[in-house]
Amino acid sequence: MLASTKTVDLFEVIANKENRVKRQQEWLKSHSLPLISFSINMPGPEKNNALTDVIFRQGMHAIRNTCASYGWTIVNRQIHRANTGAEAIMVVETDDVNALKIAMMRIEHTHAMGRLMDIDVLAVSGEIISRDNQGFGKRQCYICDDEAVVCARSQRHDLPTLLQKIEEIVNNA
Ligand SMILES: [Zn+2]
After folding, report:
1. How far is the CA of 156 from the centre of ligand 1 (A)?
2. Sequence ranges of the domains in the chain
3. Please, are residues 58 and 119 in contact by the beta-carbon 8 Å criterion?
4. 15: which of 24, 25, 70, 158 lies 20 to 30 Å off by Cα?
5. What's the predicted TM-score (pTM) here?
6. How far is the CA of 13 from the centre of ligand 1 (A)?
């Protein structure tokens, strides 16, 4: 079962998001290369547990392997372990930011735990590359296959249901 850890509140989430954006901007400026920003899609107030550890490790592994297979060097990376969940930013040497986005979306869509991963790609300009027009469609909810953002916004599924499903996905991966 899940070992209980510290929980997080909305203020921490907002503060963390602001810090993340600041770090991203600094790195874009200092490297002039695209960034990958990886975090875990974990509902509820508890953002770190045995499951998120597994998802994070697997995600880092998949991102590294994928970049290596395309010949894109990760020239710098930073792992940030906060109360709000583990995150990583990686600076990637590539001149094709759309190809990078597509490769990361492929992980989200094909990796056994991909639905639990959020892998954003930022262009040197700071623009977050959109999922649209990349041929993958909207992200689906892992409970009902409806559009994930719709279920999240309406809180269609209760937390125990979501956590049970996440445990199932990780254990079956
Ligand atoms: Zn749903």
Report:
1. 6
2. 10-172
3. no
4. 158
5. 0.91
6. 23
